[in-house]
Amino acid sequence: MDEAGLRLSPSSVTDFKSCPQLFKFRKIDHLAEPVSGPAARGSLIHAVLERLFSEQAASRTPDRAQELLDALWRQVREDPEFRPSGMGMQEEAAWLKEARTLLRNYFKLEDPRGLEASELEWWIEYDLSDVQLRGIIDRLEKRPDGTWVLTDYKTGRVPGESRELAAFFGLRFYALVCWRAFGIIPKEIRLVYLADPVVLTLNPNERMLLAFERQMRALAKAVQRAVNTNDWRTRPSPYCMSCSFQSLCPAWASVASEQSETGEVTGD
C-alpha cells in the first residue's frame, strides 16, 4: 500500500471479497495480466458509448455507433496493452462481430437521442474514515426535478434472480459516494446489460446505504489488517481456473506439490 493510504474501488473490493490473494497480486504487487477478450471488448464498448453521448443528440444513431466502433478500434488494435492476448485475424473478426451485436442491442434498450448525460465516465471519490472510496461512473443523468440517475453498462450476461442484488454492488458503492460527497442519494441506479439485452433498476435509500457503508468500513479494516500482517488468504473457487496468477498462487503451488509427491499427472 502506498503513502496515500488505503484506496478502494468496486473492482478492488470485489477482488478482496472473492480472494484476498488476488487483491494482493493486483493492487499491492501490481502484477501485469494478459488482456482478455471480454475485458477489451467491454472497454471498447464503453469508449464508443462515451463518444456517442458526446455528440449532438440527432447524431446518436446505430450507424454512428458502428462508425465509432470501427474508428476507435483502428486506434488501438495494434496496442498490446489493449489488444486481447493471442488474438489472430480470425479471432478478431468474431470478436468484433460480438461487439457490433452488443451495440445493436444497446439501441433496443434506450434511445440516446432522447437522453442528456450530465457526466460521462465520471471520476468520483470520498474519504470514509481511514479509506478512500473512488471510481468511475459510466453515466450520470441529472433530471429536471433535481434527482440523479446512475447508469452502468455491462457487456456480460445478466445474473440469475438470486444474484441481482449482488450485481448492483458497484452502483451501490457509487450511490454511497454520491450521498456522502454531494449529499444526494441517487433516485435510481441502472444496470444496462447489452448481451441479453435487459435493464435492471434499483432505488437506493438511506437505510440501504447506511448498511452498505458499515460493510465498506468493515471490509476496509479487513484489508488494512491483511496489509499490516501480510496475511493474504487464498479462496479457491471455480474462478481459479481462469485466474492469470494461478502459477504464482500459494494454493495452486501446494496442489502442484501434492501432485508431484504422488506422481499424479494432469492434462493430456
Q: In this structure, how is the largest beta sheet organized? A: 6 strands, mixed
The dominant shape is globular
CATH class of the largest domain: Alpha Beta
What is the radius of gyration?
21 Å
- Report how far the terminal alpha carbons are from each other: 41 Å
> Low-confidence parts, pLDDT < 50 over ≥5 residues?
none
Helix content range of the residues, please?
40-55%
How many helices in DSSP terms? Answer: 9
CATH architectural designation of the largest domain: Alpha-Beta Complex
Number of strands: 6
Q: What is the CATH topology descriptor of the largest domain?
A: Lambda Exonuclease, Chain A
Mean pLDDT: 92
| Helix-strand sequence | EHHHHHEEEHHEEHH
Strand portion, in percent?
A: 15-25%
Structural class: alpha/beta
Number of domains: 2
Can you walk through the features of this model?
With about 270 residues, this protein is an alpha/beta fold. The protein folds into 2 domains: about 80 residues, no CATH class; about 110 residues, Lambda Exonuclease, Chain A, CATH 3.90.320.10. It is about 45% helix and about 15% strand. It has 9 helices and 6 strands, in the order βαααααβββααββαα. Strands 1, 2, 3, 4, 5 and 6 form a 6-stranded mixed β-sheet that branches. Helix 1 packs across helix 2 and helix 3 packs across helix 4.
